Amino acid sequence: MNRQCQPCTACCDGWVQITVKGCEAYPGHPCPHSTGQGCDDYLNRPVQPCQTFECSWVKAGSALPEHLKPSESGALVIDGILKWQGLSVDLAVPVGREIPPATLDWLKEFAERTLRPLIYQQQDPDSKLLQKNPLTLAYGPPAFQQWVLEQQAQGKTLW
Length: 159
Ligand code: SF4
Ligand code: SF4
Description:
Elements: E1 18-20, E2 23-25, H1 47-51, H2 70-73, E3 75-84, E4 87-94, H3 101-114, E5 118-122, E6 135-139, H4 142-153
Bound molecules: iron/sulfur cluster (2 copies).
One iron/sulfur cluster is lined by residues 12, 20, 31, 33-34, 39, 41, 45, 50.
């Protein structure tokens, strides 16, 4: 049975950066059509990104368990955001300021078990305001963590 988004609206609420009809959504800045419980213009939602976006949890055949639903776990996962040395790398963004510790522990264990390095984000604890670009951290082999640090030091985007 396919998983259903409702009542989750995490991807509409800006926790992952999207552009909808030219309007950017990012942390602290939801899509203007999000009611927090759904979309007030659902029938007219654009194909990109609204009709095509699927987080890792909602995808058919998802490897994530029920309790990793973004609205419950506090993390929105996008699988295979990039490749590193032939390995698929997953991205986890917080639904809120940071991913709850139990969820992050699960994601790290999953990364180890499946050999999928993890990139995860959190808001800067020193800033009370939500940042458009949260801090980006890496979990995986030391060489992967080093590579992420180097990309960031060079000002390169990771995905
Ligand atoms: S984050 Fe995932 S489960 Fe939540 S609304 Fe978006 S696609 Fe659906
Ligand atoms: S238009 Fe609707 S479906 Fe698309 S991001 Fe906004 S609230 Fe979500």
